[in-house]
């Protein structure tokens, strides 16, 4: 599953790419709103005890999208019969899950002769969502029983369970129903044993209004029979043995596009956007099947793969077996309306979900405490599977910044958790679908691949899939297979999965070698933090350019301190640890070694230092300065080499670091910071220029141009700004005939609105409301968030609170605005005045707290801080204790940021002033309040779109 979460809004980690993958995922990362993770019931009550297990479900669903006799619209009738058996002697009760269903009848009978089993009573726990059926007699062990329910459910608009969505045709809503059952939402559609280890087969029937709708599910339709009243009953083939969260069905006026085995399911108005997804999906499905040596159709029940574009979808995509669901922007693609990075994003999301057909669907994590067994593998193949199909995209190198650096941002705090981490509640399970399970999981797998070698790693994973097919897995099952091929495998890998965080390795040079010392890296206190955790470190190093290709560890170092013997060590041109940053750790060096690295970076071809290691060095320097392991003056001086850098990865890492640094600059020093930005980006701008990509340029060069233009235009590069505004006005004057190249739209839309007035804003707003293409809607929303005038910022907030911005996109819209430093004061003022409207539009006052916390984390104006504090104190009862606590936490974050800024001002300002006195170009922006904040945060939310 590919995800976006509310949490990114208040996440301390920032990133700079837009429409890309990885950083701030996830994402990643599945929560849609902040949730309370503290259990309110005894922990064992959240889990089923396993005394009764299912083997098969017969389910019939009958949805209503409009008024029918005695039926409310957006409800559904359901009947479910579960074949179960008791595996523990003396079982006198059956426990299973249900949520938001009105159970009309419940019964138990012996399957062999239909003899009823009398119910004594039943009870339901709202907190654990467990329904308990107490029986008058105990069940026979290992004998099949039928557990039957009739019930009524509701299709909400919350994007959970069996929910409703819509698209518009001629301004009229056309309703549809779709499902999202991961992690624990199948219980909203039918009573079930809603844990991944309880695998069963599913036979589904859907009774639907065939005059207006069609129905789709995981497997092929066996029959469609008319049943009267304009309705039909479709019977789907029985599924493979699988977990409840993988069942899926859609009832919608959709059409299928493309040819078997991979077809796109979408609204008819998007027919012209389906070709790429079908073509790329087939390519990736074949590639992954070959890689795993287990073709997808080797599962008899799954002979075709439908991929559906759903208008409202909480996650980026969901891997339902045979019926993968996506946000429209994650699947639908029109070349003339989407950026190159959006295209890559779509391909990698498809690869991620297809990889789940093996890692997740065929072999499923037993419980969500080991989510990485699903998501880590899918995130690994998201990049390396796509890289095999699209080698020109250089995804194997992009992985370093997008996945590894992103994981480190999350994993560098004491609030992190191990990859394998205990969870019990729904909120805890949702929270673990994060940067750690996704990105760190993928990073540790990549590290394991280089430990074993690619061939051995692939062989071991093929064995793992074959042996665990159709069953649930624990990490030890994987470790056991790996150990067959290398007896040290689990000893190397397990600590990375069971311990939180990662190490900082400090290197000190000597005459005949180097001393390495490891200690846990923490943003809130690395030096002397008292944490004695150590990790088995894969050691590789390079002293010449040709050595960077050796990524298999020379040895595994354990303990806090160890030595590397190297004759004439003091005479090597440089010593760089962790070739191509395969190992999951940061590196600091003594002053002399940093001097040598700096000299090499400024020499011809960067001294042969690999591009991934240049990105590593850039990322480490920014973060070492952030934790006072290195002075900002020294870090920024070494980073001056970027003036000659021409590759995307180091600049992407630099963009991430500069985003965070911009928060550490006092308002009165921002003109100096702007001069610094224009100086270090000057040659990069001349390298990429404000121009459309050429057909022959590397894909990553196109991505580099986007980064450089964003920074240059935002900080007032005269030529950049002038050309962007001219392009915007040319488009605005004749939108029917003029198109802005997709790879320039991001900067053109933003700069056009930033430098424009209400006319420019309203023009782009109209395009946002009328476009039929989801990727273009992303770009226009980004452009609108660049507004600077108070009235326009508040108009953007009104937009975010309206139905024009779909529920799935509201958190994204706020995150975009939080990345605009000139909008923060206006946004705070709007929330103080319109908090009730915001709460109603964003699912409660928790969203108000999140918005204020996001503003406070980026704010530099004490008067605005004081107004937020006064609002919180005067409205405690309205806000509620939880939301009030979130705002108080944001106020504390403001104070902490200010302390950091004051404490480091002399160091940062001293470097910037020295540069200015040494001839750096003056700021080219006059009438702009450059409260520079994370450019990447503007783009943050869309990384998991």
Can you offer a commentary on this structure?
With 945 residues, this protein is an alpha+beta fold. An 8-stranded mixed beta sheet has the order 5-4-8-2-1-11-14-13, with no helix packed on it. α13 (648-662) packs parallel to α15. It starts with 51 loop residues before the first strand and ends in a 5-residue tail after the last helix.
> What structural class do the secondary elements suggest?
alpha+beta
Distance between the termini: 12 Å
Largest sheet geometry: 8 strands, mixed
Report the total helices: 27
Rough shape?
globular
Layout of strands and helices, then pairs:
Blueprint: E1 52-64, E2 75-86, E3 93-97, E4 102-110, E5 116-117, E6 119-125, E7 130-135, E8 145-154, E9 161-169, E10 172-180, E11 201-209, E12 214-217, E13 221-228, E14 231-236, E15 249-252, E16 255-257, E17 262-266, H1 275-292, E18 305-310, E19 317-318, E20 323-327, H2 340-355, E21 363-365, H3 372-389, H4 395-411, H5 426-431, H6 435-452, H7 454-468, E22 471-473, H8 475-485, H9 489-498, E23 503-509, E24 513-520, E25 537-539, E26 541-542, E27 555-557, E28 561-565, E29 576-577, E30 586-589, H10 591-601, H11 611-626, H12 632-638, H13 648-662, H14 670-688, H15 699-714, H16 718-733, H17 742-754, H18 758-770, H19 774-784, H20 790-800, H21 807-818, H22 824-841, H23 846-856, H24 862-874, H25 876-879, H26 881-917, H27 935-940
Parallel strand pairs: 1-11, 17-18, 18-20, 21-22, 23-30
Antiparallel strand pairs: 1-2, 2-8, 3-7, 4-5, 4-8, 6-7, 9-10, 11-14, 12-15, 13-14, 16-17, 19-20, 23-24, 24-28, 25-27, 26-29
């Amino acid at each position: 599953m590919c995800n976006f979460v509310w949490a990114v809004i208040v996440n301390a980690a920032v990133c700079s790419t837009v429409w890309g993958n990885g950083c701030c995922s996830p994402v990643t990362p599945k929560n849609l709103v902040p949730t309370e993770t503290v259990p309110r019931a005894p922990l064992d009550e959240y889990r089923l005890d396993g005394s009764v297990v299912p083997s098969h479900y017969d389910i019939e669903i009958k949805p209503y999208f409009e008024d029918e006799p005695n039926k409310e619209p957006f409800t559904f009738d359901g009947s479910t019969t579960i074949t179960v058996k008791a595996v523990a002697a003396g079982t006198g009760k059956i426990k299973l899950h249900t949520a938001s269903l009105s159970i009309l009848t419940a019964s138990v009978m012996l399957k062999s002769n239909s003899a009823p089993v009398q119910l004594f009573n039943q009870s339901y726990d709202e907190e654990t969502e467990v329904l308990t059926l107490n029986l008058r007699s105990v069940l026979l062990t290992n004998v099949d029983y039928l557990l039957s329910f009739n019930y009524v459910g509701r299709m909400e608009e919350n994007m959970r369970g069996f929910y409703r969505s819509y698209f518009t045709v001629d301004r009229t809503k056309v309703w549809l129903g779709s499902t999202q059952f991961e992690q624990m939402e199948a219980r909203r559609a039918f009573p079930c044993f809603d844990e991944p280890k309880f695998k069963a087969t599913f036979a589904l029937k859907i009774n639907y209004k065939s005059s207006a709708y069609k129905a789709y599910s995981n497997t092929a339709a066996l029959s469609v029979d008319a049943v009267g009243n304009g309705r039909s009953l479709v019977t789907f083939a029985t599924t493979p043995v699988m977990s409840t969260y993988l069942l899926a069905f859609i009832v919608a006026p959709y059409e299928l596009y493309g040819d078997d085995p991979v077809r796109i399911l979408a609204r008819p108005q998007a027919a012209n956007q389906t070709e790429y997804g079908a073509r790329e999906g087939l390519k990736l499905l074949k590639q992954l099947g070959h890689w795993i040596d287990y073709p997808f159709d080797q599962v008899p029940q799954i002979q075709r793969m439908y991929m559906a574009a759903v208008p409202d979808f909480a996650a980026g995509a969901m891997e339902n077996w045979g019926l993968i669901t996506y946000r429209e922007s994650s699947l639908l693609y029109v070349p003339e309306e989407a950026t190159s990075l959006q295209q890559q994003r779509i391909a990698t999301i498809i690869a991620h979900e297809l990889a789940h057909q093996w890692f997740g669907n065929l072999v499923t994590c037993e419980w969500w405490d080991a989510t990485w067994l699903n998501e880590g593998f899918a995130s690994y193949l998201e990049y390396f599977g796509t890289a095999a199909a699209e080698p020109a995209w250089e995804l194997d190198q992009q992985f370093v910044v997008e996945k590894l650096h992103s994981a480190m941002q999350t994993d560098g705090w004491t609030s992190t958790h191990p990859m394998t981490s205990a969870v019990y509640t729904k909120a805890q399970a949702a929270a673990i679908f994060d940067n750690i399970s996704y990105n760190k999981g993928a990073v540790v797998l990549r590290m394991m691949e280089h430990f074993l070698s690619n061939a051995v790693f692939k062989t071991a994973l093929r064995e793992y899939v074959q042996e665990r097919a159709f069953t649930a897995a624990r990490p030890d099952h994987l470790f056991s297979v790996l150990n067959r091929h290398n007896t040290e495998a689990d000893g190397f890998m397990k600590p990375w999965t069971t311990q939180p965080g990662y190490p900082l390795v400090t290197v000190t040079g000597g005459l005949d070698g180097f001393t390495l010392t490891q200690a846990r890296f923490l943003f809130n206190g690395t030096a002397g933090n008292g944490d004695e955790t150590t990790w088995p470190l894969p050691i590789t190093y390079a002293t010449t350019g040709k050595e960077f290709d050796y990524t298999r560890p020379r040895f595994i170092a354990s303990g806090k301190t160890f030595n590397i013997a190297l004759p004439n060590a003091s005479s090597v041109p440089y010593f760089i640890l962790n070739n191509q940053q395969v190992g999951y750790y940061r590196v600091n060096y003594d002053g002399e070694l940093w001097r040598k690295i700096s000299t090499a970076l400024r020499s011809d071809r960067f001294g042969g230092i690999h591009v991934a290691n240049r990105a590593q060095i850039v990322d480490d320097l920014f973060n070492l300065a952030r934790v006072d392991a290195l002075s900002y003056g020294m870090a920024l001086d070494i980073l001056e080499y970027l003036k000659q850098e021409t590759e995307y990865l180091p600049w992407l890492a630099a963009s991430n670091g500069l985003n965070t640094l911009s928060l550490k600059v006092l308002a009165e020093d921002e003109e100096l910071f702007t001069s610094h930005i224009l100086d270090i980006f000057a040659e990069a701008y001349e390298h990429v220029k404000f121009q459309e990509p050429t057909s022959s340029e590397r894909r990553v060069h196109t991505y580099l141009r986007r980064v450089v233009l964003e920074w240059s235009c935002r900080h007032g590069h005269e030529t950049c700004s002038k050309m962007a505004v001219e392009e915007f006005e040319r488009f605005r004057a004749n939108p029917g005939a003029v198109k802005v190249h997709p790879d320039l739209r991001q900067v053109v839309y933003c700069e056009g609105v930033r430098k424009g007035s209400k006319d420019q804003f309203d023009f782009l707003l109209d395009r946002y409301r009328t476009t039929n293409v989801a990727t273009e809607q992303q770009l226009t929303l980004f452009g609108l968030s660049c507004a600077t005038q108070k009235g326009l910022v508040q108009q953007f907030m009104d937009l975010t609170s309206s139905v024009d911005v779909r529920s799935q996109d509201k958190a994204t819209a706020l995150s975009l605005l939080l990345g605009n430093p000139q909008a923060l004061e206006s946004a705070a003022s709007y929330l103080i005045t319109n908090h009730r409207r915001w709460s109603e539009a964003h699912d409660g006052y928790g969203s108000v707290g999140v918005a204020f916390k996001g503003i406070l984390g980026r704010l530099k104006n004490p008067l605005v801080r004081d107004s937020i504090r006064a609002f919180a104190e005067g409205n405690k009862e309205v806000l509620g204790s939880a939301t009030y606590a979130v705002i108080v936490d944001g106020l504390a974050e403001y104070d902490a940021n200010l302390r950091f800024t004051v404490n480091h001002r002399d160091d940062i300002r001293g470097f910037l002033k020295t540069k200015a006195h040494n001839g750096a170009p003056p700021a080219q922006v006059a009438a702009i309040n450059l409260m520079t904040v994370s450019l990447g945060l503007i783009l943050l939310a869309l990384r998991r779109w």
